[in-house]
Design brief:
- The chain contains nine helices and seven strands; from the N terminus they run αβαβαβααβαβαβααβ.
- It is an alpha/beta fold.
- A seven-stranded mixed beta sheet has the order 2-1-3-4-5-6-7, with helices on both faces.
């Protein structure tokens, strides 16, 4: 989350206020996410507002509230429900002209501005390797816990242009994929 915050602040250098969209019903992720983003915002002197949505009908009011909060940008929190509502979220970000960063590359592919997160392909590959070891007789308790090691940065230049943003060369160089 801190890295997403930094990337968004780099992409939108005039940012003074960032909103974080979270699902209050997804406690385990939300509780860990908010302090990380608060710490990153505090370190950069940027105000942070938390915006909630836990049903498909709550997205529109959440995005509408961004103008009143004077949010210059949005971080979309990690949540399986948000992934299932990807197109709705990307469409609202476009309609409200808010630069937003997402965790999964599928958001950027759907028209979102930028995404940064673990590579689902590499995560699924690791899951397959683990399952293979268990099927060959390994005890799950004996297998080490692994953390994701491959992260993907995807930048959507079409969306940046529509928002009137110039993507810094450093982000373009660092990007795993640039959508033109």
């Amino acid at each position: 989350m801190a890295k997403r915050f930094e990337l968004l602040a780099e992409l939108v250098p005039q940012v003074r206020t960032i909103a974080l969209l979270v699902n209050p019903g997804y406690h385990s992720a939300t509780e860990g996410m908010i302090p990380l983003v608060q710490q990153a915002a505090s370190a950069k002197g940027i105000r942070l507002h938390i915006v909630h949505a836990s049903t498909k009908d709550e997205f529109e009011p959440a995005f509408a509230s961004l103008a009143g909060l004077k949010a210059d940008a949005l971080i979309v929190g990690t949540d399986p429900f948000f992934s299932s509502r990807r197109q709705q979220i990307v469409t609202l970000a476009s309609r409200y002209a808010v630069p937003a960063i997402y965790e999964w590359q599928e958001f950027a592919a759907a028209g979102g501005l930028i995404s940064y997160g673990t590579s689902l392909t590499s995560v699924y590959r690791e899951v397959g390797i683990y399952v293979g070891k268990v099927l060959k007789g390994a005890k799950p308790a004996d297998l080490p816990i692994q953390q994701p090691t491959h992260f993907e940065l995807i930048v959507n230049l079409r969306t940046a242009k529509a928002l009137g943003l110039t993507v810094p060369p450093t982000l373009l160089t660092a990007a795993d994929q640039v959508i033109e």
